[in-house]
Design a protein that fits this description.
There is one protein chain. By secondary structure, this protein is mostly helical. The chain has one domain. The chain contains three helices and no strands. Helix 1 crosses helix 2 and helix 2 runs antiparallel to helix 3. It is elongated and about 50 Å long.
Length: 56
């Protein structure tokens, strides 16, 4: 169970593509988009916490 949670956290695109049974080029594009979306939100969240804790 722990490996499944870690897989969802670190590579959500792969898990979602497995669930939808995507193959080949569709899988590559979907994984890229989902992972960029996921990590983009994560980085914005980290930047927000940093900005709030370190004002000018």
């Amino acid at each position: 169970m722990h490996t499944r949670i870690l897989r969802w956290l670190f590579n959500p695109g792969d898990c979602i593509c497995d669930w939808f049974k995507l193959k080949d080029e569709h899988r590559f594009i979907a994984r890229s988009f989902i992972n960029m979306h996921w990590y983009g939100h994560f980085l914005v969240w980290v930047a927000l916490i940093y900005a709030r804790s370190n004002p000018y």
